[in-house]
Structure formats: structure tokens, C-alpha cells
Design brief:
about 350 residues; seven-stranded mixed sheet; Rossmann fold; 11 helices; elongated; 2 domains
Length: about 350
């Protein structure tokens, strides 16, 4: 075991249910191994300003069931500058912090890499409701967000049935359609629109007309926020072309809140323990992942490159450090992930009415 005296734990970016489970696990497991833990408030902004507290077991009691993050979150433009990074490193040195566990999304991981290359070991944990970190099958908060979406849309269906309406519902997910796709299947949506796949708007409208003719009274259409203002405009066109009374609903940030599900509490705990184990074993610049229901880890820089490849944002020169075999492996990984999502999307088209 490497000689870590103190570590810090922070949450950054958008909050996600289950983050508190991670904070609790990181703190408890580190303390049980003789390592002190600083809870760092407001992410990298708090790391620069020294807004932190030395945690005890008591500080993380009764938080596993709470949504959001007890460490709060904030974005900081200053942190990405050399001056900001130097300030963060100095804070850690002044407080004898030997490593950081950073919980968040891709921006959080970039910050962790920046600190690692400057001598401060960091481990990332994927905490985002969007489930849009390519290197991992699952990110903390996604399950709760989907269950919240399901609950709210089920309620909308009740009133849609009473009034013979169509409800066009926009769900969160940033540029990822994961929540929209899987929650859409779970609520029996007549159609699902996500950024990853092309869709035929007229085909959906014709489907609604046919279903109405055969006696269907309510219709649910789920749309991912990554499609911009499409949802509101589409709701108007549905009513104009089908004569079905149509309402648009944007669930927005309420999907981020609420008590975390069992899945987010358990996986959050597992990932928190894994992160501390990685630090104590001398590893850094790693992100804790879940693949095929098993906890594993991956180099953060590789994970970020893989993520940009999957999202079509990769610049050719970013692959210069990788062998042809590794690049082929990355492309195959992205293709398999996209194919699985498409399989589920096509399945819903076959069973939706």
C-alpha cells in the first residue's frame, strides 16, 4: 500500500443521485485504512479556494439515501487556466492532500488528468444522469433519473387517457439519448426521438392517426433534449395533422433530484471503494468503470479519447499516440456500443403503437 496520509473527494459538473453514496464509500473505506479524507466543497472551485473539511465517519452518516451531493457542485473557468491549476495544487500541498477522487462527467475527468500530470494523483468516478461516458456501461445517477422519468410520464399518461391526448415529453440527457430511449420503452411510448438515430416524423404521425382510428385514446412521445426545440414544434404539428389534442411537457432538472435508487446506491458504493483501492495501490489518472456488470478501471486520457470518438468529436491528430491495433479496438468498441443502442431503438419501433 502506498503511503497516503490524506485524500480529497469532490463532486463536479451536474449533480446526480448516488453521488452521496460514493462520497460515503470513499470516506469510510479510506478511514478504515488509516487515510484521512477532506471533503472538498463546490468541486474544483472549492479546491482552489480551500473550501474543504476534514471528514469523520459521522460526516457521511445518513447521506446514502439523499439526492444531490452534500459537497455541492460548481463550474470554474479559472480552474482550466495554468494559474487556477497551480492554485489547486498549492491548496493540496498546503493541506497535505496526497490524492483526489473526482466524481462527475467528462469535464471532471479532464480536470483530474490536468492535476495528475502536475503531480497530484487522481481517480475519476462517472457521476452523471446522462450515462454518456463511453468507456463505462453505467454512470451513477442514470437509473434514478430513468425511474423518475418513468414515474412522471406514467402520471401524464393517466390524464392523457382521461382527455384522449397526446403528451410529447422532453427528457434530460444532454446530447445523449440514453434516458429517452430506455425510459421510452419502459413507459410504452408510441415514439422515441433521440439524437443518435434518424427518424421519420411523418411515419410517426401516420402511426398516431391509425392508432386513434382503432380506438387508442392516449399517446406518449419521448424526445431527448439533445434535439433542441424540436419537441415543442413537433407537438404543434401533431395536433395540426392528427386532430389529437396534444400537450408538450419538459421534465427538465426535476429528473436530477430525488432519493437514489438501489442500483445507484450500491454501484456508487462499489465505485467509491474501488477508487480508494486504486489510489492506495499507487495508480492514478484512472476512471472507475462498469462493464458487463463488473467494476474495472481505464486510463482517463484513453477514456476521454474513446468518448470523443464515439461522439464524432475526435480530431485525427488525437490518435497519434495509439497503435493501429489500439485504434481498431477503439473503433470496434464504439461500433458495438452504438449497435446495441440501435438494436434497442429498433425493437421499440417494432412494439410501439
Amino acid at each position: 500500500m502506498h503511503n497516503f496520509r490524506r485524500i480529497g473527494v469532490l463532486t463536479s459538473g451536474g449533480d446526480a443521485p448516488g453521488m452521496n453514496a460514493v462520497i460515503r464509500a470513499v470516506t469510510r473505506y479510506a478511514l478504515s485504512n488509516g487515510v484521512e479524507v477532506f471533503g472538498i466543497y463546490e468541486g474544483y472551485k472549492g479546491l482552489m479556494s480551500g473550501n474543504m473539511k476534514l471528514f469523520s465517519d459521522h460526516d457521511v452518516s445518513n447521506i446514502i439515501n439523499r439526492g444531490g451531493t452534500i459537497l455541492y457542485s460548481a463550474r470554474s473557468k479559472e480552474f482550466v487556466t495554468e494559474e487556477g491549476l497551480a492554485t489547486a495544487i498549492k491548496t493540496c500541498r498546503d493541506n497535505k492532500i496526497d490524492g483526489i477522487v473526482a466524481i462527475g462527467g467528462d469535464g471532471t475527468f479532464r480536470g483530474a488528468t490536468d492535476l495528475t500530470v502536475r503531480g497530484l494523483p487522481c481517480i475519476g468516478i462517472p457521476g452523471t444522469i446522462d450515462n454518456d461516458i463511453t468507456a463505462t456501461d453505467y454512470t451513477i445517477g442514470c437509473d434514478t433519473a430513468m425511474n423518475t422519468t418513468i414515474e412522471m410520464v406514467d402520471r401524464l399518461r393517466d390524464t392523457s387517457e382521461s382527455h384522449a391526448r397526446c403528451s410529447v415529453v422532453e427528457v434530460m440527457g444532454r446530447n445523449s439519448g440514453y434516458i429517452g430511449l430506455y425510459a421510452g420503452i419502459a413507459v410504452g411510448a408510441s415514439a422515441i426521438f433521440v439524437p443518435e438515430f434518424k427518424f421519420d416524423e411523418n411515419e410517426v404521425i401516420n402511426k398516431l392517426v391509425r392508432s386513434k382510428k382503432y380506438g387508442k385514446r392516449n399517446f406518449i412521445i419521448l424526445i431527448s433534449e439533445g434535439l433542441g426545440n424540436f419537441g415543442e414544434e413537433f407537438a404543434r404539428r401533431v395536433e395540426e395533422k392528427t386532430e389529437i389534442e396534444t400537450r408538450f411537457a419538459r421534465l427538465a432538472h426535476v429528473v436530477r433530484g430525488g432519493a437514489p435508487s438501489l442500483r445507484d446506491r450500491v454501484i456508487g458504493s462499489e465505485m467509491g471503494v474501488a477508487a480508494v483501492k486504486l489510489l492506495l495501490s499507487g495508480k492514478s489518472n484512472r476512471v472507475v468503470c462498469m462493464r458487463k456488470d463488473k467494476i474495472c478501471d481505464e486510463d482517463i486520457s484513453y477514456a476521454l479519447t474513446l468518448d470523443r470518438m464515439f461522439k464524432g468529436k475526435l480530431k485525427p491528430e488525437e490518435l497519434d499516440g495509439y497503435s493501429d491495433e489500439k485504434v481498431a479496438e477503439m473503433r470496434d468498441f464504439c461500433a458495438a456500443k452504438r449497435a446495441e443502442m440501435e438494436r434497442v431503438y429498433r425493437m421499440n419501433m417494432d412494439i410501439s403503437k
